[in-house]
Amino acid sequence: MAKRVAVVLAGCGVFDGSEIHEASAVLVHLSREGAQAELYAPNIPQMHVVDHVKGQPTPEQRNVLVESARIARGNIKDLATLDVKGLDALIIPGGFGVAKNLSTWATQGKNCSISKEVEGVLRAFHAAHKPIGLCCISPVLAAKIFPGCEVTVGHDTECEQWPYAKTAEAMKELGCRHVNSQVSEVHVDARNRLVSTSAFMCNAPIHEIHDGIGAMMREVLRLA
């Protein structure tokens, strides 16, 4: 039987939702591996809406579930209905929506809170020993919830290629072990069944990011 994999989205668009290329790569690689994706998003207001041309917030108000449905082509469910019992794995793509809508990492960093629904889902998969795939900024969720876990967001030294490397330092302060990696690589925390890759935390060609997410998907499905 095909593996059933929950994919949790955080809106639509890199600056205020899920990173669209990452979400698309997840779905492409799941399809290629013969797995069945089931998409979910919390039915909550976005923190704010960003004009992606200007890179600035607007007065608009949007809903995370409604916006995520754009990526899901309408085939998406309220995160509150997710039942871990019928699923084999969990994937959370990156994008600022993870840090703005699924948590408050964007404004509070290591002192953030995580959406109760999102935390509940992560803890449920973890307790069931089912694998969790995290890319780009989404490993911060695991760092906050599972002290001592091992993840990667790429590198911990900021430079042109790694502009968000300070994220790794904040994660270390939470008691997480950060493992430096290249964009094409993943890190597997076998004890916690976490698979992570840096994706757009790195300034890399889009095909390399796509390939790194593919490596993450294969490891998640191997563990499922």
Ordered list of secondary-structure elements with their pairings:
Blueprint: E1 4-8, H1 20-32, E2 36-41, E3 49-51, E4 56-58, H2 64-71, E5 77-78, E6 89-92, H3 96-100, H4 105-108, H5 116-127, E7 132-135, H6 139-145, E8 150-151, H7 166-173, E9 177-178, E10 187-189, E11 194-197, H8 206-223
Protein name: GAL3B protein
Organism: Alaudala cheleensis (Asian short-toed lark)
InterPro entries: Class_I_gatase-like
List keywords for this structure.
two-stranded antiparallel ribbon; alpha/beta; GAL3B protein; Rossmann fold; 8 helices; seven-stranded mixed sheet; Class_I_gatase-like; 224 residues
Sheet-strand content, in percent, reads: 15-25%
Mean of the pLDDT scores?
97
Q: Quick one: CATH class?
A: Alpha Beta
The counted number of beta strands is 11
Compute the number of structural domains: 1
Form type: globular
CATH topology: Rossmann fold
Profile the largest sheet.
7 strands, mixed
Estimate percent helicity: 25-40%
Order of helices and strands: EHEEEHEEHHHEHEHEEEH
Q: Gap between N and C termini, in Å?
A: 12 Å
Strand order of the largest sheet: 5-2-1-6-7-11-10
Taking pLDDT < 50 over at least 5 consecutive residues as the criterion, the unreliable ranges are: none
Radius of gyration: 16 Å
Q: How many DSSP H or I helices?
A: 8
Describe the model.
The chain has 224 residues and is an alpha/beta fold. The protein has a single domain, classed as Rossmann fold (3-Layer(aba) Sandwich), CATH 3.40.50. 33% of the residues lie in helices and 17% in strands. The chain contains 8 helices and 11 strands. It has helices spanning 20-32, 64-71, 96-100, 105-108, 116-127, 139-145, 166-173, 206-223, and strands at residues 4-8, 36-41, 49-51, 56-58, 77-78, 89-92, 132-135, 150-151, 177-178, 187-189, 194-197. The strands form 3 sheets. A 7-stranded mixed beta sheet has the order 5-2-1-6-7-11-10. The chain has a two-stranded antiparallel ribbon with strand order 3-4. Helix 1 (20-32) packs across helix 8 (206-223). The longest helix is centred in the last third of the chain and has 18 residues, at 206-223. The chain starts with a strand and ends with a helix.
